[in-house]
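Notes from the 1:1 (GR / supervisor)

We went over the backlog. Supervisor wanted to see one worked example end to end before approving the batch request, so GR pasted a single chain during the call. The sequence is below; no edits were made to it. Supervisor asked that the structure be written out right there so they could see what the output format looks like.
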Amino acid sequence: MAKKKILIVDDDADTRLLVSARLKKHQYDTVFAADALGAIAVARQAQPDAIILDLGLPGGNGFIVLQRLRTNTVLAGIPVIILTADESPESEFKGLEAGAVAVLHKPVQEETLIAAVEGAVGQSESPIINARLEF
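Structure output shown during the call:
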């Protein structure tokens, strides 16, 4: 079975590397984008199996990225997991309403991240919808 590819969209390089290391430990390939414009471009080019998306991005927030993904016929079916430091219930609701399959909060436990990714790419029975666990 081919490795699943996950696009990590976050403007913080340390966060991208930490999330990537956790995913690679569980046999996922990763690609990166650091801003809203790059997220769409990399998603088109890489055709990832899932996207981990931060909300606070240069060039447009994560909600704009999510909206653009959902209106693009080629990218609309890619599951999106929001990974954010924003713990407001409004952001969680808005993210799920916009089509995210899960909303996770930084810092996130490795088990929670992997469970959400496995759920998103169909390797688990059910995705995590909302997690506030910290490590």
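Supervisor's comment: DSSP finds five helices and six strands in the chain.
Batch request approved.
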